[in-house]
Amino acid sequence: MRTCKNCKSKFEPVRSNQIVCSPLCAYDYSKKQKVKQWNKEKKERKEKLKTRSEHLNELQVIFNAFIRERDKNQPCISCGKPLKGKFDAGHYKSVGSYPELRFDENNVHGQCVHCNQHKGGAIHEYRKGLIERVGLHVVEWLELNHDPKKYTIEEIKELKERYKQKTKEL
Predict the structure, then answer these.
(1) What count of other Cβ atoms lies within 10 Å of the Cβ of residue 75?
(2) Rounded to an integer, what distance in angstroms lies between the CA atom of residue 105 and that of residue 54?
(3) What is the distance between the alpha carbons of residues 25 and 10, in angstroms, rounded to a whole number?
(4) Which of 35, 92, 105, 133 lies at 20 to 30 Å from 146 by C-alpha?
(5) pLDDT-derived band of residue 60, with 50, 70 and 90 as boundaries?
(6) Cα separation of 36 and 41, whole Å?
(7) How many Cβ atoms sit within 10 Å of the Cβ of residue 79?
(8) Residue 113 in contact with residue 79, Cβ under 8 Å?
(9) Contacts of 13 (CB under 8 A, 6+ apart)
(10) What is the DSSP letter of 14?
(11) Which one has a higher pLDDT value, 120 or 4?
(12) In angstroms, rounded to a whole number, what is the distance separating the alpha carbons of residues 120 and 90?
């Protein structure tokens, strides 16, 4: 006895390679396989059509999730209050002004919504918390001028995979 790939009922196969119980199930199963194949092709096509900007936005979401997971048991980098519920992955040096530091783990830390969004990042307090967390030499390095970094789509894809993996490992 075999189990039909379509309706999951038990049946006695007539041929050795038979995987469905009836012609109706064969038709339905074939239709489902075509839909699966089309969805797979559609997903691949969409991926190929993504712009660099769309890849960067996806990477930002993945990177921020990593920062939130990494810092979930830390206090807010600015005010020192426990991070409960929703909190942001706040940048010390902003993404707009310092895009080369956008994905630098030393530049991004868990920050409460109030400090990040309502106090403009609370930069002075952020700097004090950052010195305690990573050291003065790292903060001074972040404050230097850095060469601009323009990520290629391939580099962005590699970073997405790296930060997905790092998040799983936490």
Answers:
(1) 16
(2) 21
(3) 13
(4) 133
(5) very high
(6) 9
(7) 15
(8) no
(9) 2
(10) S
(11) 4
(12) 10
Q: Give residue 115's identity as a one-letter amino acid code.
A: C
Q: Say what the pLDDT of residue 148 is.
A: 87
User: What span, in angstroms and rounded, lies between the C-alpha atoms of 91 and 57?
Assistant: 15
d(CA 35, CA 33) in angstroms, rounded, equals 5
- Tokens, residue 138: 């790292």
**Cβ 6 vs Cβ 32: under 8 Å:** yes
Q: Which pair of structure tokens corresponds to residue 67?
A: 């920062």
Residue entry with tokens 């999730």: 65
The helix/strand/coil state of 153 is helix
H or E stretch covering 113? helix 113-113
pTM confidence score: 0.78
Are the C-beta atoms of residues 129 and 164 closer than 8 Å to each other?
no
CA distance 123 to 61: 22
Q: For residue 5, give the 3-state DSSP assignment.
A: coil
Structure tokens at 34: 């075509």
Q: 104: helix, coil or strand?
A: coil
- Dump the DSSP string for 23-86: HHHHHHHHHHHHHHHHHHHHHHHHHHH--HHHHHHHHHHHHHHHHHHHTTTSBPTTT--B--SS
